[in-house]
Write a structure and sequence with these properties.
Length: 467
Amino acid sequence: MWIELAEGIEVAVADLSDRRNIHVIGAGGAGMSAISTLLAARGHNVHGSDLKRSPATDRLNAFGIPVTIGHSPDNVGGADMVVASSAIPHDNTELTMARNNGIQIFSRAEMLHSIFKDKQIISVSGTHGKTTTTSMLSLCLVEAGLHPSFLVGGDINESDTNAVWDSGDLAVVEADESDGTFLALDTDIAVITNIEPDHLDHYGDFDSLVGAFDQFARHAKRTVVVNGDDPLAFAIARKIGGESVGMDGSATWRIVSGSTYVNGSEFLLARHGELFPETFRVPVIGEHNLRNAALAVATAIYAGGSPSAVATGLARFGGVARRFQRRGSSHGVIFIDDYAHLPGEVSAAIKTARLLQSNRVVVVFQPHRYSRISMLADDFGSPLALADVVIVTDIYPAGEPVSPGVTGQLVADAVIRSNPDVVVHYIPRLSQLPQLMDEILEEGDLCITMGAGDITTLFDEMLMYWG
């Protein structure tokens, strides 16, 4: 069955009223593992496949959702329907098997719509910060007793999972703007964290990306809630009469007395000039996290949570995996891991590190996607130059073909142009990293690994190297 969400936007809807046999291609991805978890929680027989084993595939297997490593037509088995993300090639052998046998195929967004079609959907999108904001919002609504279902792009530390199915009317979804599929969700409340250049390989230019966010906001059936300190997001909310959250006095929800310390952040919040009595505290640091928290709080209260319960839920937030996550320490060096792969995220992470560290901040940055670096390499120069030492690896392709002339050297050169005093190394092979890090790192350093690829393993590799 197909339905029209808005003019020009049609989505296929899966019939999940009876128990189905569902195969998920790429089940180890953040979004697809969450979909697998939700479908199984609803009582369906779910199995999947992925190219490589990962913590996500191990967890799905532990939950009773078998994931086969490697793609084969045999994996599809007797499936009634197949779910595949936009990252799966059209000629994938399992997709071909499904098409040849008349098995229904659904995209990630279409299956999300089908799973949550009877709930009020709060869709959280934005260039960065959406995983953290979605996680905070979900915890606030849980504490408020609203029993939300939720799907997040990273594991929430309190629940050690990225998806929960519950009995309440609300569903909180981290909405993916990368390929436009966030427009396929039947959103009630749209949330926008910020809008910065990204995914231009899909949209073509920045104006088209901004236009997609505008459409996302306009299609929301109740309202849009945005970061009012982001000029583009604020302009969208103001144009359609939505809600805005920010430090600027023109915001609908104004952040009052916001402060961030080495052990957390806190703020007061006023709506239309009326101050809530609660002090909202969150045990994560950085001004960007303070804004994420305020956006989550305002959305939770708007959705029906009591301010006092929302404050309690926010205080319980313990972070999200790979979001300024402390991995440990060795040889007097503290290791932090962060998913930052965009200029704004890199800047926020290094500024946060400066709150913790008076000695050197050493950044190991793994650029992500050839298409992104070909367009944005220069934009990484100033953010990375906030560190004392920068090591740039070669590009994590994320499935993209090699682009001649596009390497991590472009990013390293941008840092040098921005600040020649910063020590910069470009190292094309990850296998060379442990030896280089052993030569560079000094007692008292804080080392941050950054990127959306496999750079997260460096801390474990250093422990092995140092014995």
